Every structure is written in structure tokens, then in C-alpha cells.
């Protein structure tokens, strides 16, 4: 039985009198019998060429070993392949697993060009950090390109509920930090020129995007980044107002 059902409509064309395709989406717990290959596919989609640096089969096993946390979205019943997935893995509780070791190495190596991010990763995921009480949860979220973004908020609401239930049951899902990895692309010279031309036609001072700007593939990733920045600023303000003795 699915957790929840959601209906989505999609126009076949731009005209309002065109037919609309209605698709029913069901939300399920991750299923070890069905979802293993799909999780590997989503991993390759997320990391692209970097996927070879990570132990993806072990990550799939980790996700499927904790069906009480996480959600898949399907449109053709429980036995069909998932179209989306959202879950979280405790990097501290599973630090001896091959995937977690490769992910930590990937994060530390990839952040070397950003001193602030690298220092944070080193503090949380370095040898000393992995022995601390500050547990980091890696949020794995990926979906097919044509999946409507409207299916995302219910998945996060369900994840929040499931984490609360897991914590009440003394399971290792209490996190001090969450790690999100997002796919992005850079605005090309051609795209920047097209955006500038549109801005000029609309009599805007500047286009909204410029050449080499980084754009997230999934629109919710930008909202998550902004929320994270606001939270970090609030924590910093509290630390300054009430310094540790």
C-alpha cells in the first residue's frame, strides 16, 4: 500500500484548450526487492562521471536496509521502478561502510578549492569529527528530469515525520548537520547572450543570469541553499551573543 497519492497534470501544448495528461503518483517506502537498480541509476545521474569514485552498490544497500526512513515515487504500482527518491544516511553511524568512506573522501577532496567548506567538512567528517557527537546526515535526493517539482514537498514532509518517529525509537537519525549534494550547470556564453537580449526587450537593466553563473538542476536546491545560509547566520549570531564559557 502506498503512503500517499498525488495527481499531476501536464499540458500537451502551450494552448489552454489542449488536452491535459493526468498522472497519479504514489509514495512508497524504499523496497529492497525492486529499487536496487533504480537507486544505482539515480546515483549515476547525480554524480555523473564522479560516480566511479564512490561505492554506489554499497550506498544502495544502505538505503534499502532502512526502509522506515525515505520515500520513492512511482506511477505504476509498488512493483514498478521509482521515478524519484529521497532519503538520508547517517555518515557517523555508518562510517565503516565503503560508501561512507568514499563519500567522505570525495567531499574533502572536492572542497579543497573552498576554504570555508573544506574546513567545515574537515571538522565534521575528518577523523576527529567522525568520533564526535555531531552526526551528519547525507540527504540523497534525485529524480527523473520530467518529474514535476510538486512531488518534492510531500517527500520532505514525510521525511521529517519519519525522522521524528525514528528518533523516538532511539534509531540513529538525530543529526546536527545535513549534507546536500546538488547537480548544477554553468550558464554558457550563448545562453548569457540570449538572456541579455530578452532583458533588453523587456527593458530590464540587467539579465537575471550571467555567463558562468552556477544554476542548480533542481529548483528546490536553491531554496535549500538559501535556507541553510539563513540558518548559519542565525547560529553565528547566537554564538556571538552567547559565547561559550
From TrEMBL:
<feature type="compositionally biased region" description="Acidic residues">
    <location>
        <begin position="12"/>
        <end position="24"/>
    </location>
</feature>
<protein>
    <recommendedName>
        <fullName>Protein BCP1</fullName>
    </recommendedName>
</protein>
<feature type="region of interest" description="Disordered">
    <location>
        <begin position="1"/>
        <end position="24"/>
    </location>
</feature>
<dbReference type="InterPro" id="IPR025602">
    <property type="entry name" value="BCP1_family"/>
</dbReference>
<dbReference type="Pfam" id="PF13862">
    <property type="entry name" value="BCCIP"/>
</dbReference>
<dbReference type="GO" id="GO:0005634">
    <property type="term" value="C:nucleus"/>
</dbReference>
<comment type="similarity">
    <text>Belongs to the BCP1 family.</text>
</comment>
